[in-house]
């Protein structure tokens, strides 16, 4: 069943604190809806905007959820992702990422994968905690730039999946987390495809895997 994605199988160790959606809120109901439809096993259907719902809110809830999933997946392999094992942030030999967030670090810096992922996840967390960007209260409108912020977050979260698949898949297999990783990534990809949230060029490091996941589901 698909629910293991959310119950977090064996390792409940997260890399950063989990981001909680307030219980009793509409977003919490949406998250519950998302989990229930995931349980049906039809991911293409599960990612669709539920009838009558606000697109921004649906994207917000799922972005928080993906942050939590990736947080947990990366948490399982942090001991294998070190300054010496991963001196650069890469996704295979052809793709290397340099960090910049446009505010604290304006000029992209070359750094190790653990450092990059720390910067990245801290940055995402700061966006998710910003009530002006991700309002948790009912009736507070999303800002005009919400969609572009969400796209940047998802584009960056993708890089963590890409790094795990390219550099740490053997560890994931040893830990018997591959089903968990594949399900989470497939859910992520179907979601970003449904709403056109990540440029195809950005997805290139996992192009073959994405093709494979898509073809099994048509």
TrEMBL record:
Pfam families: Mob1_phocein. Signal peptide: none annotated. Zn(2+) binds at residues 81, 86, 163, 168. It comes from the Eukaryota. Residues 1-12 have a biased composition (Polar residues). Residues 1-22 are annotated as: Disordered. Gene3D superfamilies: MOB kinase activator. Keywords: Kinase, Metal-binding, Transferase, Zinc. This is MOB1A kinase. The gene is Mob1a.
